[in-house]
TrEMBL record:
It comes from Oncorhynchus mykiss (Rainbow trout). GO terms for molecular function: gamma-tubulin binding; microtubule minus-end binding. The keyword Cytoplasm applies. Residues 216-504 form the Gamma tubulin complex component protein N-terminal domain. Pfam families: GCP_C_terminal, GCP_N_terminal. Residues 507-580 form the Gamma tubulin complex component C-terminal domain. Component of the gamma-tubulin ring complex (gTuRC) which mediates microtubule nucleation. This is Gamma-tubulin complex component. GO terms for biological process: cytoplasmic microtubule organization; meiotic cell cycle; microtubule nucleation; mitotic cell cycle; spindle assembly. GO terms for cellular component: centrosome; gamma-tubulin complex; microtubule; spindle pole. Belongs to the TUBGCP family. The keyword Cytoplasm applies. It is found in: Cytoplasm, Cytoskeleton, Microtubule organizing center, Centrosome. Keywords: Cytoplasm, Cytoskeleton, Microtubule.
Length: 595
């Protein structure tokens, strides 16, 4: 956080709390800056803080539910905020102050509400019973539709429109309609189809061996997203997990084993829906790479189910054996489904997806197999992001078709630099987008931005540059590996820009030339110039001929000691619209307004 941001936040906090007098904002700002630490809140301290707040809260269930919801959406800085709140809850004086402030604010809000008057229309209008019934149905339909989560089609359209608005010349490609109109292609359950009717014989009336074989057959279907005879999938709304209905007449011992296996089918359904939805162009290259990695793992899962089916056809697969063989895969499917749900709930793309995967990989430190699985997914998903990063830090080029990269390019007119003489073009053309920064690159974000900017400045001046030490950047839990690559490219970009300015563009010589004319280092030319232009400058502004002033300026330069300056031809004459006093007033007004 920058010093200006700290000043702004402290002053805003003091204003909200109605703090007057006292030590002032500077004291608190100084304390904050002295106590800043690079260490991140650990998982243990965050968990302890969460438990402490839940104990203090009047509704702990609501707090824990909200915390889990925000955590599933990958909200940044959630754990540090919870840790801060737990510390505030320990200080009774601060709590009392906050409670008093909240009470005062609520009273002010209540007074403002009661003071507002509303014009209520007369109630003489009468409606018939039929009109009331129609109105009730319409309101019911609106309420029901508002409770349905946003469909994938609407989300895709929103993302596509946002991209096309930003890049009108490069619209997103779109899958043909038949991809979405044929649900049998996505590998998930097809619910809502016409039922085949009740079976002729209820499974509960069959012998136990026959029940077991029938359920094994059903489970093999359900594990690959197809309804069975006695096990059927329930429709899902939004981002819910898939649930199943098992024939109630089934023997309880067999039903218990079936219920142990069914979560794997639910995980499969979640993963299948996720990979199908996120494979659309609108969700970006990182999500595409993640779904491709998941599909690779799902192929191994389908091979396992195929092998189980082969055993079943040979009569060598019992329900107990099925449960035994499926258990090692259950953990993998659970992790994949959890990651899919987290990315889906958080509407993650690009850097936010990588942050979620990195945090999940880091959290599985004690579980080597789970960490290896998450590491595989993170490495695969980070490849397209790091390709964009490499182009930026090695060449100063952004190729980000789906707006996933942490650096965003804005369309600005470079030609205005010749007129406005400010750094707006270089300062605002490329900016950092916070929510697109992967958590493992947060500390290097400023250097990444500066590296590409430096190379881009040189490229804009007509010189192609490429970092000679360019190497492929790969994701690893050891951050030092790619941190070193970023630092090398940063030092190279800094050196290239500095050499370009100092040697090719002769910055020192140009500053010395500016010193000659604007600081009167060689002021004799100005005396000659004023003598030569005296008659011309006595005329009204509209009657002055600029080319004549240019010619007299060139003559004055050649008659003075500035004749040896190699940049003397760059000196031009410009007639101002206002007097110098007016310009001074305008500058003072702008400064006082905060610009």
């Amino acid at each position: 956080m920058s010093e200006f941001r700290i000043h702004h936040d402290v002053n805003e906090l003091l204003s909200l709390l109605h703090v007057r007098g006292g030590d002032g904002a500077e004291v608190f700002i100084d304390l904050l800056q002295k106590n800043r630490t690079p260490y991140i809140t650990t998982t243990v301290s965050a968990h302890s803080a969460k438990v402490k707040i839940a104990e203090y809260s009047k509704t702990p269930e609501d707090f824990l539910r909200k915390y889990d919801e925000l955590k599933s959406k990958n909200v940044r800085n959630l754990d540090p905020l919870v840790y801060l709140l737990s510390k505030l809850s320990e200080d009774k004086e601060i709590l009392q102050c906050l409670q008093q402030n909240a009470k005062e604010r609520s009273e002010v809000s209540a007074n403002a509400t009661t003071s507002t008057t509303f014009a209520i229309p007369p109630t003489s209008t009468k409606m018939s019973m039929q009109e009331l019934e129609e109105l009730r149905k319409k309101l019911g339909n609106v309420t029901a539709s508002s409770n349905v989560p946003q469909s994938a089609e609407i989300t895709r359209k929103m993302l596509r429109d946002r991209h096309n608005k930003k890049n009108p010349t490069q619209p997103n490609p779109v899958f043909p309609n038949w991809v979405y109109d044929r649900p049998a292609l996505n590998g998930d359950f097809i619910t809502g189809a016409t039922a085949a009717g009740d079976p002729a014989v209820a499974i509960g009336t069959m012998p136990l061996p026959a029940q077991e074989q029938a359920l094994v057959d059903d489970l093999l279907f359900v594990l690959v997203g197809v309804d069975g005879r006695d096990i059927t999938a329930q429709p899902v709304l939004g981002r819910q997990n898939r649930s199943f209905i098992v024939d109630p007449t089934l023997d309880m011992s067999i039903k218990e084993l079936v219920n142990r296996v069914l979560p794997v089918a639910s995980y499969y359904s979640t993963i299948a829906r996720f990979t199908e939805e996120k494979s659309s162009f609108e969700y970006g290259q990182v999500n595409h790479a993640l779904t491709a990695a998941m599909r690779t793992l799902m192929k191994e899962y389908l091979i396992l189910v195929t092998q189980l089916e082969h055993l079943h056809r040979q009569g060598m697969l019992s329900l107990q054996k099925l449960w035994f063989y499926i258990q090692p895969t259950m953990r993998t499917m659970e992790i994949l489904a959890f990651i899919a749900s987290s990315v889906d709930k958080g509407d993650c793309m690009g850097g936010s997806t990588l942050s979620l995967l990195h945090d999940r990989t880091f959290n599985y430190t004690g579980d080597s197999q789970a960490q290896e699985l998450c590491l595989y997914l993170t490495k695969a998903a980070s490849v397209p992001y790091f390709e964009i990063l490499e182009k930026w830090i090695y060449r100063g080029i952004i190729k980000d078709p789906y707006s996933e990269f942490m650096v965003e390019e804005h369309e600005l007119q470079k030609e205005k630099i010749q007129e406005d003489y400010n750094d707006k073009y270089w300062d605002q053309r490329y900016t950092i987008v916070q929510h697109r920064i992967p958590s493992f690159l947060q500390k290097m974000a400023d250097k990444i931005l500066s590296t590409g900017k430096y190379l881009n400045v040189v490229r804009e001046c007509g010189r192609d540059v490429t970092c000679p030490d360019a190497k492929e950047v790969l994701y690893t839990l050891k951050e030092r590996a790619y941190v070193e690559q970023i630092e090398k490219s940063y030092y190279y970009a800094s050196k290239v820009l500095l050499d370009f300015l100092m040697e090719e563009k002769e910055l020192v010589a140009r500053l010395r030339s500016i010193k000659h004319y604007f600081l009167m280092d060689k002021g004799d030319f100005f005396v000659h110039f004023m003598d030569l232009t005296e008659e011309e400058l006595k005329k009204p502004v509209d009657d002055i001929v600029p080319p004549r002033l240019e010619a007299l300026l060139e003559l004055a330069l050649r008659m003075s000691t500035a004749n040896t300056d190699p940049f003397k031809d760059d000196l031009k004459v410009n007639m101002l619209e206002y007097q110098s006093v007016i310009y001074a007033i305008l500058i003072t007004t702008a400064l006082s307004s905060g610009y």
